[in-house]
Amino acid sequence: MRIVIYGAGAVGCYFGARLVEAGEEVVFVARGRHLAALRSDGLRIESIAGEVRLERVAATDDAASLGETDAVLVTTKTWQVEAAGRTLRPLVGEHTVVVPLQNGVEAPAQLERSLPAEAVAGGLTRILCELVEPGRIRHTGIDPVIVMGERDGRRTGRCDRLAEALERAPGVSVVVSDDIEAELWHKLLLMAPVSGVCSVARVPLGRVRANPAARDLLRRSMEEAAAVAEARGVRLPEGAVAAALAFLDGLPHGSIPSMHRDIASGRPSELEQLSGAVVRLGRECGVATPVHQFMHAALLPSELIARGEGVGP
């Protein structure tokens, strides 16, 4: 397959490198120093699932020049998705599938504002990795998995073909779901709470887990997200909150959510797409979300400064 990785940061480069290992034709769309490193030095993945060193990769900052492709994995930051959709239009043909892998639940709808609805699937990933330096990615936790599916639950074959390519890739698991909306909310139930609590507390996950008050905040924020999902007609699995807590208990003590890392470094974060989304979508369906409202309000001033929208010094 011809697969474009659009927004090739840590997550995109990990899965793209694995697809190259499996013999697929992969093009990375990146920018800046990272793009320069990909072009000059290739790509290195340091992973608990086995290292990868690609001496040469195909990389560009001009997605529109690539023409129609079989599949696009959109791995930008969440706030970049809508702009990505406008850029990706020339890549989408009759049989192309576009799979966003962002945190949150709103990326597919954002892409549909610019792309044909039938081209856009739902998707998510579970992986703990970071961009160590341009051209070098470190995967430190979670067995990497991509979950995807058509938004109406049909099996059209597009996701299955992409899944077959991913299944051939070492260090990757893939699931084609017939209820991707539930999968997206299940991940939001985990990511919004852990990102918000770690960011407010300014400590890694292990410190949050070990503190009874912080752990209770984590649990209550999960329950809020679950209540919003239920009010919106999403069918979460039974015991979703307990399962999410158990999953977090299995992660390394020093795990740091990417939102916490971004906020601590003064970069724009996924605050609006995580706790912000729980608050906004909860308000739409009349569900109170006081924990997420607190976390969103507490983190918003630094978020606005990072985006150049802060007032004052």
Strand and helix map with partners:
Elements: E1 2-6, H1 10-21, E2 25-29, H2 32-41, E3 43-47, E4 52-54, E5 58-60, E6 71-74, H3 81-88, E7 97-100, H4 107-111, E8 122-133, E9 136-149, H5 158-167, E10 173-176, H6 180-201, H7 205-210, H8 212-231, H9 240-249, H10 258-264, H11 275-284, H12 290-306
Helix pairs in contact: 6-8, 6-9, 6-10, 6-12, 8-9, 11-12
Give structural notes:
With 313 residues, this protein is an alpha/beta fold. The protein folds into 2 domains: 2-178, 3-Layer(aba) Sandwich (Rossmann fold); 182-306, N-(1-d-carboxylethyl)-l-norvaline Dehydrogenase, domain 2 (Orthogonal Bundle), CATH 1.10.1040.10. Helices cover 44% and strands 19% of the residues. It is built from 12 helices and 10 strands. The chain has helices at residues 10-21, 32-41, 81-88, 107-111, 158-167, 180-201, 205-210, 212-231, 240-249, 258-264, 275-284, 290-306, and strands spanning 2-6, 25-29, 43-47, 52-54, 58-60, 71-74, 97-100, 122-133, 136-149, 173-176. The strands form 2 sheets. It has a 5-stranded parallel β-sheet. Strands 3, 4, 8, 9 and 10 form a 5-stranded mixed β-sheet that branches. Helix 1 (10-21) links the parallel strand 1 (2-6) and strand 2. Helix 6 (180-201) packs parallel to helix 10, helix 8 (212-231) packs antiparallel against helix 9 (240-249) and helix 11 packs across helix 12 (290-306). The longest helix has 22 residues, at 180-201.
